[in-house]
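Tutorial handout. Part one gives the primary structure; part two gives the three-dimensional structure as tokens.
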Amino acid sequence: MGKKIRILVVDDERIVRESLRDWLENVGYKVVIAGSGEEALRIIKQKKIKIMLADLIMPGIDGIELMKEAKKIVPTIATVIITAYGSVQTAISAIREGAHDYIEKPFCPEKVELLINNLVEHQHLIEENISLRRKIEDRYNFEGIIAKSPKMLKIFELIKMVAPTSATILIIGKTGTGKEVIARAIHHQSPRRNKPFIATSCAALPESLLESEIFGHEKGSFTGAVERKKGKFEAGDQGTLFLDEIGEIDANTQIHLLRAIEEKKITRVGGNEEIDVDVRVIAATNRNLKTMVKQGKFREDLYYRLNVVTIDLPTLRDRKEDILPLAEHFLKKYTVENNKSIKNLSPEVMEFILNYSWPGNVRELENMVERGVILSKNKAINLAEIPRDIIHPTPAEGRTVEAVTKNHIINVLEETKGNISEAAKILGIQRMTLYNKLKKYSYAVNNLDM
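Part two.
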């Protein structure tokens, strides 16, 4: 199996590269040769190269620079530096730069073969590890959703069943549980995957603008309507429309939404023309729509039209098996984004995140890890990088989920000096959602910066 690995030999001396090629081909390896670093890079881009032997001193691109550029193309490529007799110190420097080993001219064929055989074994181990990691990631990853808990695996199965259909879906779950991520997974598993996925929050706009946002408007239909505008339904034609926080829409918009779903027709605000639309609607809410129906705040017929299939997302504290895989996923993500070299979470942080209640769910965990990556000066995220208000809630508040949520929100708001937009961004929620929560907590909202 090892003999199938393709080796690249790079040396500006023809006799050297051809001698190495002949020796390695005689023992069964596939060998490609290049007379310069520039030619070598062209070959690496075109052919699958696992091992490269590169001369240290060459005109143009030298061996060290070639090694660095080759790794940008093939990160797992193993490089052996070819050096003249007596240049051991230079070769050692090359190893510090990332070379796997070096060989000295003149060559001993037996030593070269032994070195290559060892590198082949090394490459096989790397490939096995990559394959194993992929299998683990595939086990925990479904359309970008990291999970292994039984509750989430059942949801994955449900997604596979409903995605190929045209059924309207209602996703229910607390803020931060990943409702939009689930909606995107359904879209990507559906026949509409190559068509638009349009997401909009029904709580992000005032009632006066929401209907226009969803259905569009005609020029002059209201003050500020200086031109015709297509709405989300038209933009999402043939695709999927995700309506988050559906419980926030007003009675008039509810009527028009019901018609759009049932008849597949819309009329822009201020217009008379009926427009045919083919859109799959996925709605989401963190509110109890059944209760709202009983209270007369949500149309019963719309509720049942939306609720053909329900996906009930568990809170993060109800899927504890997913906490560490999620944290590791976010750690990798933000380490790369911020160009940091943080390797892991400290044991104390792992213990803390497994026992914390996570009132903000997956979104709060992601924000915590991102903050930890940014603030950490070590190879691991420690408790010092975790926000103090979630580690030490005020005694009067206790440890109830609602109390911890309130305490965390108010602390973030104070850190942003009352700027609701900035606080909402840090918390990972919509401005209006934050505004409504603050009103619920009887927090003075009149003087805040929206």
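Part three, for discussion. Confidence is low (pLDDT under 50) at residues 394-399. The domain at 317-440 is CATH 1.10.8.60 (Helicase, Ruva Protein; domain 3).
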